[in-house]
UniProtKB/TrEMBL annotation:
This is VOC family protein. PANTHER family: GLYOXALASE FAMILY PROTEIN (AFU_ORTHOLOGUE AFUA_5G14830) (PTHR35006). CDD domains: VOC_like. InterPro entries: Glyas_Bleomycin-R_OHBP_Dase, Glyas_Fos-R_dOase_dom, VOC_core. PROSITE patterns: VOC.
Length: 135
């Protein structure tokens, strides 16, 4: 299992960056998997997801200054790890940016928690299975 689930960052122009990444990542067999229109995003800008095997692991979006909206998501094998991350991150001084729970707008088993680190980076831990424990 990979430790990273996905990374996201803001770009000045999502369409310019989309064209760049489509071309630049083609030799790696990384393709645009999905585009989410402005009506369905938090920033009201376009989002493009790139990856392999129909799963987007790199996301770019616009309508925020580059550097703002930087996001990294770590993969967890079960939901108890997501809960433990959230509790440990808050104890370490992180700021709650979304408590542990299912994010059904992604899919029915997307269980995640979000914390802002000391520099405001949105750190997520996500379990994308229905597993509650490692057993």
């Amino acid at each position: 299992m990979t430790i990273l689930d996905h990374v996201e960052f803001a770009v000045r122009d999502a369409e310019v960056s989309r064209r760049f990444y489509e071309t630049a990542l083609a030799p790696l067999d990384i393709v645009r998997v999905i585009t989410v229109g402005p009506d369905h995003t938090r920033t009201k800008g376009a989002r493009h997801g790139f990856g392999k095997d129909d799963y987007p692991r790199l996301w770019i979006h616009d309508n925020e200054p580059p550097g703002v909206g930087t996001h990294i998501a770590f993969a967890a094998q079960d939901r108890t790890i997501v809960d433990a991350f959230h509790q440990a991150a808050l104890k370490a001084g992180g700021i709650d940016n979304g408590p542990p729970g299912v994010r059904a707008h992604y899919h029915d088993h997307y269980y995640a928690a979000y914390v802002l680190d000391p520099d405001g980076i949105n750190v997520e831990v996500v379990c994308q299975s229905s597993a509650i424990s490692g057993h």
